[in-house]
Amino acid sequence: MKRPLLLALPLLLTTSAVVAQATSTTLSGTVRDAAGQPLPGANVFLKTTFDGATTDSLGRFRFTTRQTGSLPLLVTLLGYQPQEQPAPLDGQPHRFAVVLKEVRNQLGDVTITAGSFEASDEKRSTVLTTRDVQTTAGALADINGALNTLPGTSRVGEEGKLFVRGGAAGETRQYLDGLPLQSPYNASVAGVPSRGRFSPNLFKGTVFSTGGYSAEYGQALSAVVGLNSYDLAPETQTGISLLSVGLSLSHQQRFERSSVAVTGDYTNLQPYYGVVPQRWGWTTAPQSAGGSLAVRQRVGELGMLKVYGAATRSAFALRQPDPAFDGGRPVALRNNNEYLNATFRSPLRRGWSLQTGLAGTRDEQDIRPDVQRVRELEQSLVGRVVLTNDSAGTYWNLKLGAEGLAQRYQQQYQPAAEDAAPVLRSGFDETRAAAFAESDIAFSNQLVARAGARAEYSRVLGRWNAAPRLALAYQLAEGTQLSGAWGYFYQTPANDLLRFGQYNPGLRFERATHYLVSYQRVKNDRTLRLEAYYKDYAHLVRYAPLGLTGTVLLPVSPGSYQSTGRGYARGVDVFWRDKKTVKGLDYWVSYGLVDTRRQQRQDPQLAVPTFASRHNLSVVSKYWVQPLHTLLGATFSYGSPRSYYDPNLPGYNQGRTPSYQDLSLNLSYVTSIRRNLTIVHVSCSNVLGRNNVYGYRYAATPDASGHYPGVAVTPAAPRMLFVGLLISINKKRPADTETAPE
Fold first, then answer.
1. Which of 92, 241, 263, 434 is the most exposed place for a label (fewest CB within 10 A)?
2. pLDDT of 293-304, one tens digit each?
3. Contact of 520 with 529, CB cutoff 8 Å
């Protein structure tokens, strides 16, 4: 099962040799649109032959051929008129400058949009960019915080993660440059929100799909986040960030065909907590130190090799409000995380292109709730190979891929601090393989389909699955289309459910079936999107409480695990964005309605999950004040009351929290220090100081009157104030413009 992973490395190292085979005539050049912008992904080849290439992110191409005489050079790209011009094949190098004309109302304007929000410089239906992440009030430059302002998400303040369309956070899979992330969030404990591990500055684009996504994505029941990193750094630059919670230093060096970027970060909230009172008793304020290294190298004319590595150390300790503990329940956490990602992409021959990579993760957590101790260690290696053929131009393409995972998870649980206390060891070794095939097919200028299938095998489950998927898009008018999607989506149960695998050999893949219909209109810098969906869950894991393993009493009975849980989620999402009506103003409004029930884990019956809000609303606005060189931002978020279990009331999950409401503001002032670009950034979350309640904790036993005491789960403080001074050395302040600088 490790063989696919080992095969990926030779492909990574030797593909450049395939591209650089010696031939008699070299053809190169650029492909641009009528406005002079580069067109990546264009197919350039000699007619009647298989010799050709695909343009890179700068619209450049280069290939060699043994053909002689003269043949037509054909250039095609979805949504543009094909162009031919003669190419002399006389053994001498020849360079071409090709300009393609856009085809109005053709397939290039019809894309599969059901369930997905895409954002990058290469996507014409941009919804959320990296700059949006950085400037969204309340997100604090966290990718997940910004995505939580889009429809389909529920604000779960005590977690800080992505909860999409009635699905738990673990049902959303995140990918970095095509490779799945095993540990996308910083380590945390229950009640303390976490952040994403990666800075938005790393990425040129983000794909957020809330359902019906491509067959190349697996192990996700609800949603997928695709993070696509930059290629070569645009310029040599040094950055210094002085923050109210720490310090960050960075330097990137640009060479002709390569770049290197190094960052170092240190965060310590102790000084901040000394100024701003906290509701919780922090014994050790959150602290972290980390760094990263990104190396980019162009291989040949069109290949790109990327290597990214990062390491983080973090720790905190506090006393959380708990009715069973006077002065709060003590909790401490230490986390060490290392991550390495290497990817390579290049065009091959005959219209094929390759994308492959390897990624390794090591995540170690030491958690001490009260007198107990839990140590978790997860190590994983994942490899991926994807081949794409676009030789058919605007009519169809083909994508083939394979993915392999080797994972080891270990947990040690000690119920007491004494050395003599028994230690329960559990864990599993997983080897997982997956393969997929997918094609986009154009039936006409207005109708396009995406058909695909994915198959996976899990050694720890001893089972296969097969997941067919289908999507359609029909163009109603220019910039307006109707889309639909359907498919099966599988996921192995969570680590804590697999660690007692010897007691539950009958577990299965959890499954969700998606049905989606969406309407989208993008015109004149305005976007309207409406989507209705239904999600059917099957084979969710259920178990009975309290079990005895050896001499250790567990909160659950491992032998009772069964894949008999079920559920559903249905609803409507609405998104409106306007960057045109008011000069300098960019705003969006998102609303999501979700009706969901599920029976999973210890649920005795179908019930509304405690993390799901029926109604979710976000209003985000950003206004650039040119005379003041200042960007003003505001975000209002609303979530309707969430369910929770109150042992003092009859029934299950019958309690209701107050509604969630948050108004956050930020300000970014652009100036210069010794002519170096400088930004002063100030932000404040929940400026009105609303007392948001996320749920309640109850004692395990009733008091003398038969009542179960409880305390509210709330944020550590009603507001979060952030101040930063960001200096970019060697990057000059841009000339006055009518828009905010990138």
1. 92
2. 999 999 987 789
3. yes
Q: Hey, what are 298's tokens?
A: 């162009």
Residues with Cβ within 8 Å of 733's Cβ and at least 6 positions away in sequence, in order, are 670, 671, 672, 675, 676, 677, 678, 741
Instruction: Write the DSSP string, 603-647.
Output: -SS-B--TT-BSEEEEEEEEEEEGGGTEEEEEEEEEEPPBEE--T
pLDDT tens profile 336-357:
999 999 999 998 888 889 999 9
Q: How many CB atoms lie within 10 A of CB 545?
A: 12
Instruction: For residue 68, give the H/E element and its range.
Output: none
75, HSE (Cβ side, Cα atoms, 13 Å): 30
d(CA 458, CA 481): 39
Angle at 25 between CA 21 and CA 28, to 5 degrees: 90
Count of beta carbons in the 10 Å neighbourhood of residue 247: 13
Residues 560 and 545 sit within 8 Å (Cβ to Cβ) = no
472 vs 448: CA distance, rounded Å: 6
Residue 309 to residue 719: CA distance in whole angstroms? 34
Q: How confident is the model at residue 381 (pLDDT cuts 50, 70, 90)?
A: very high
Where are any strands of DSSP class E within 115-257?
Answer: 116-119, 172-176, 179-180, 203-209, 223-229, 237-243, 246-254
Contact between residue 427 and residue 411 where contact means Cβ atoms under 8 Å apart: yes
CA distance 245 to 585: 30
Query: Are 233 and 226 within 8 A, CB to CB?
Result: no
Distance CA 656, CA 18 (A): 62
Per-residue pLDDT tens over the stretch 442-493: 888 788 899 999 999 999 999 999 999 999 988 888 788 899 999 999 999 9
Question: What does DSSP say about strands 258-268 and 281-299: parallel, antiparallel, or unpaired?
Answer: antiparallel
Q: Which residues, at least 6 apart from 35, have a Cβ–Cβ distance to it below 8 Å?
A: none
pLDDT attached to residue 424 = 86
**DSSP assigned state of 675:** T
Q: Give the per-residue pLDDT at 4.
A: 36
